[in-house]
From TrEMBL:
Keywords: ATP-binding, Cell membrane, Kinase, Membrane, Nucleotide-binding, Phosphoprotein, Transferase, Transmembrane, Transmembrane helix, Two-component regulatory system. It is a multi-pass membrane protein. SUPFAM superfamilies: ATPase domain of HSP90 chaperone/DNA topoisomerase II/histidine kinase, HAMP domain-like, Homodimeric domain of signal transducing histidine kinase. This is Sensor histidine kinase MtrB. It comes from the Bacteria. The lineage of its organism: Bacteria, Bacillati, Actinomycetota, Actinomycetes, Propionibacteriales. One of its GO terms (molecular function) is protein kinase activator activity.
Length: 548
């Protein structure tokens, strides 16, 4: 509309001005010829008063006054300046036109230039000025300037401009109304489809769209309804399969309890009487007892997993000292650490209170510690505890075999092992990290893993200090602190870490973590910190979760 209005105004202005210019040129030419004819008939010898002659010429060529839409005449000669009206000012003649006329004294060509008409009685208006030199025999001819005001033309263009603006505004309003009506007819079904999709995503699988007509939008509604039906069918089948699977795991676990109890009673009798057996039978009784313990732990973990899958796990938070809980877990596994010749060092700033489920977090820490003892290669294990106003974090760091960076999510999969050929020395069931992830998620927390082959691994648990709070960041970095600064870390310089005996491979030992720090590149540290802390800082809890 703006472009059309501009083009229309340009064409209208060009037409009006060209018509006025043509008419003014004809009138000015006639006036100049009339004045020249009077001078040609002038007898210089008999007419002694040339000033009276010029006044008569001015009267003859003057048409109307400027106030009635005619033109003004200004005659300049050696005797002075004469005007057809006292209202017109000499400044109405543009200077460039004066210069052109004076530079051609013997030329009777009619020259023209745009001007601004200045009058005493009204405002300035645009106009057109014509000028030429009259020829007088034996003397210098006067200059005649004919000025045409264009007030009427300017007023006409203003009226036209207002008409264009009003018409454009009305058309814009009408087009907007029409476009709104048309878009409403198109967008309304799309909005209905969006709302139906949102209801489907919310779980209302029985919701359907209303089908009207036979156009493309109606076909869209039919397709949406068909998709909803198929989704409902598939989800129902998957839910049924999931229920069957959960029921199967639960039933098998419960049913195995009875024969397991009987087998354990017989195995304990054999185990107690193993000294009376030959060496082969005695060793078999010992292996039977160990495997029965593993089998019982596996059944317990399967029952716990089935409760998580069924959504029956319930959190029982209570105010708990996290530092005391960590030291308790370390003390409970002291015999395992001593048998594995591994030193466990706890770095804690003191009592840290948080609302957590003590039983579940104790199980998480026990799983992480046992996992570190299993893969720590007899090197020291560091447990860091830190907190801020909103969260508490526990990091379990070992300096063992580690794992690939791409396996940081897979370590939480059920029964997953980085090296399938590696023998379990302590005897885990393969479900510990998966259960730990579910326990942490039940608290609304994060469980992250970092590892590199030959550089060890670190598992970090981040929990909200208030039950039900939303985490924003973790007090501990995901990248191990000994790779950023030498141990002990700066916040714990004055602490006396709780340690278990039998450490044989300290920080300065060959293959220890002091040498690992130098072998890790700055790019690795930067990438891990961005992938760990910054990702956790967004509140995401899906960076290392197991696919459900």
């Amino acid at each position: 509309m703006v472009l059309g209005g501009v083009l229309l105004m340009q064409q209208a202005a060009i037409g009006v001005l060209n018509a006025k210019l043509s008419a003014a040129t004809i009138q000015a030419s006639q006036a100049a010829r009339s004045a020249q004819s009077r001078l040609d008939a002038l007898n210089i010898d008999s007419d002694t008063n040339i000033n009276d002659t010029l006044a008569g010429i001015l009267t003859d060529i003057s048409d109307k006054s400027g106030s009635t839409g005619g033109y003004f005449v200004i005659v300049e000669s050696q005797l002075g300046t004469q005007k057809s009206s006292d209202d017109i000012l000499e400044s109405s003649v543009p200077q460039n036109l004066r210069d052109q006329v004076k530079s051609h004294p013997g030329d009777t060509t009619l020259l023209t230039a745009p001007t601004e008409v200045h009058t005493l009685s009204g405002p300035d208006v645009p106009g057109r000025a014509f000028g030429t030199t009259l020829q007088v025999p034996g003397a210098e001819g006067p200059q005649v300037y004919i000025i045409f005001p264009m007030a009427q033309e300017a007023e006409t263009l203003r009226y036209l401009q207002r008409a264009v603006l009003i018409t454009g505004a009305v058309l814009v309003f009408l087009l907007t109304f029409i476009a709104g009506m048309v878009s409403r007819q198109v967008v309304s079904p799309i909005r209905a489809a969006r709302r139906a999709a949102e209801r489907l995503a919310a779980g209302n699988l029985e919701d359907r769209m209303l089908v009207k007509g036979k156009d493309d939008l109606a076909r869209l509604a039919i397709s949406m309804n068909y998709m909803a039906s198929e989704l409902q069918k598939q989800i129902t089948q998957l839910e049924e399969l999931s229920r069957v699977q959960q029921r199967f795991v639960t039933d098998v676990s419960h049913e195995l309890r009875t024969p397991l109890t009987t087998v354990r009673m017989a195995a304990e009798m054999l185990y107690e009487a193993r000294e009376d057996f030959d060496p082969v039978a005695s060793r078999s009784a010992e292996l039977l007892q160990v495997e029965l313990d593993r089998f019982e732990s596996l059944l317990t973990d399967l029952l716990e997993i089935s409760r998580f899958d069924a959504g029956a796990a319930v959190l029982a938070p209570a105010e708990t000292d996290v530092s005391e809980l960590v030291e308790r877990v370390v003390a409970a596994n002291a015999s395992v650490a001593e048998a594995n010749h591994t030193e466990v060092r706890v770095h804690t700033p003191g009592p840290i209170m948080a609302e957590i489920d003590r039983r579940r977090i104790e199980r998480v820490l026990r799983n992480l510690l046992v996992n570190a003892l299993e893969h720590g290669e007899h090197r020291p294990i560091d447990i860091h505890v830190a907190a801020d106003e909103d969260a508490v974090a526990i990091a379990v760091r070992d300096h063992g075999v580690g794992f690939q960076a791409a396996q940081a999510k897979q370590v939480f999969h059920r029964f997953w092992r980085a090296d399938p050929s590696r023998e379990r020395k302590i005897g885990g069931t393969g479900l510990g990290l998966s259960i730990s992830m579910e326990d942490t998620r039940l608290h609304g927390g994060w469980l992250n893993a970092w590892g590199r082959p030959g550089r060890g691994a670190q598992f970090r648990v981040t929990l909200p200090r208030q039950a039900g709070a939303i985490l924003q960041q973790s007090p501990l970095p995901l990248v191990p602190r000994d790779l950023i600064s030498p141990l002990p870390a700066a916040p714990f310089e004055d602490e006396s870490p709780t340690a278990l005996p039998s450490g044989v491979d300290g920080p300065g030992a060959p293959g220890g973590h002091a040498q690992t720090r130098d072998s890790l590149t700055r790019e690795d540290l930067t990438r891990d910190m961005l992938a760990g802390d910054n990702l956790a800082g967004t509140g995401s809890r899906t960076d290392h979760q197991e696919p459900r």
